[in-house]
Specification:
Elements (H helix, E strand, L loop, with lengths): L3 H11 L5 E5 L8 H15 L2 E5 L11 H5 L6 E4 L11 E4 L1 H4 L15 H16 L2 H22 L4 E3 L6 E5 L7 H11 L7 E2 L7 H16 L2
Parallel strand pairs: 1-2, 2-3
Antiparallel strand pairs: 3-4, 5-6, 6-7
Helix pairs in contact: 1-2, 6-8, 7-8
Amino acid sequence: WNHPEYLEAVGQQFGSDLAAVVVAADYHSLEDGRTFYPWLRQFADQYGAVLIFDEIVTGFRLAIGGVQEYFQVTPDLAVFAKGMANGMPLSVYCGKAELMNVLKTATVSTTYGGDALSLAAAKACIGIYRTEPVIEHLWQASRTLWSAFNQLCRKYNLPLRVDNYAPFSVLTFDPDCPANFREQFFRAVCAAGVTLYNGGYVCYAHKQADLEETLQRFEVAMSRL
C-alpha cells in the first residue's frame, strides 16, 4: 500500500506481462489513497494491466461506491459484498463492459448464484442508501464514537488509539506496549459488553444513545486495566 517504488520495480520486471493490479485500502492510512489511487490508475494503464479494487469493506461504508467514488478513480473491475445486502450472503464483481463481456464465453461458478432472497435484500438496502442519509450517519457516528474513545485512552493513559474516524476505524496499539496488553484490553471490553475486531464498525441502526452506552462500557473496561 502506497509504495509506488515497489510497484515500479514489478512493472519494470514484468512489463506487458503484468496482468492485473489488485488493491485493498489500508485503513490505517486511508487518506494516502488520495494520491495513491490516481497513481495506480496511471501505472496500470502504462503497463496494460487490469486495475481491480477490493471494495468489500469500503463499498457502502466510505461511500456507496467505495473508494472509487470517494477518490474519483475508476478501476477496470471491482468486488463488493457485506453492506450492500445488510449481511445477507451476497457478493458482486463488476466492471467495464469490455471485460465483463468476456464472461459470455467463460464459466463462473457461484455458491449463492441462485439465491433470490439476497438479491431482494440488496435491492431494498440500496434503496435505503439512496433515499436516506446512511453514509453521512456512518461518518458522523464514527467520529463521535472514536474521538471520545481516544479521549478515554488518554484519560486512563492506555497505549492505544484509533487513527481513522472513517466508518471502518482501526485500533492501533503503541509498539512498546506490554506484550499481553492487547489480550487484556480485548478481554476487558468483552467482559464489559463490547465486542471488537481490530476496531469497530458503526451501522445505521446505531443512535446517539447506543454510542453513549458503548462509551460507558469502554470506560468501565479501561478503568480496570
